[in-house]
Amino acid sequence: MNRATSVVIIAVLAMLGVGATYLVQQVSASRIAAEQRQIDSRNLLDLLPAERYDNQPLEHPLTLNDRVLSNSRLLGGYLATRAGQPSAVLLRSQTIGYVGSIDLLIAIDADGKLVGVKTLRQTETPGLGARIAEWPNAWLMSFAGKSRNEPADWALKQDQGSFDQIAGATITSRAVINALHDALRYFDEHRQQLIGDAPHE
Checking phi first, is residue 65 left (phi over 0); if not, alpha (psi -120 to 50) or beta? Predict the structure, then answer.
């Protein structure tokens, strides 16, 4: 076998290898993307009990257009349904804590009550405000069942309100409480836009 033939064979083998790699990548890309969506969905939706919805909420985004509220901003949201009826909305909220921004996912049921809250991103002080990111989070879970007007005094106890704070993290705690109340108020004021005419108490 002469040198030219060897070069041609190597070139053909290289092209076959590149083609096979490309083919495998194309075939697996959609499967990898689907698996990543499932992981993202589980990470986001683990605050919403599975029995509350039977759709894929992340595939049903709400149009909120980056709403600036009194103490926070709504970055987006999703609609959860069960048997074709709205069961909850998930609102992505951003507020400013002690160090920087805190991104929350806030689940509110069709009756306007908090189902759950999860921290998606934060830059608070390690060992203090950063505990807001622990999951599950007992402090955040204490807000479940609360609504815009229940309790009437949405504030820290030291501010004559109803809520305890995360130890050593007054500013972080205050920011999260205000963001939750903002989200509940927004839901109440935009219920028709968010869930339509779903029955509620």
Answer: left
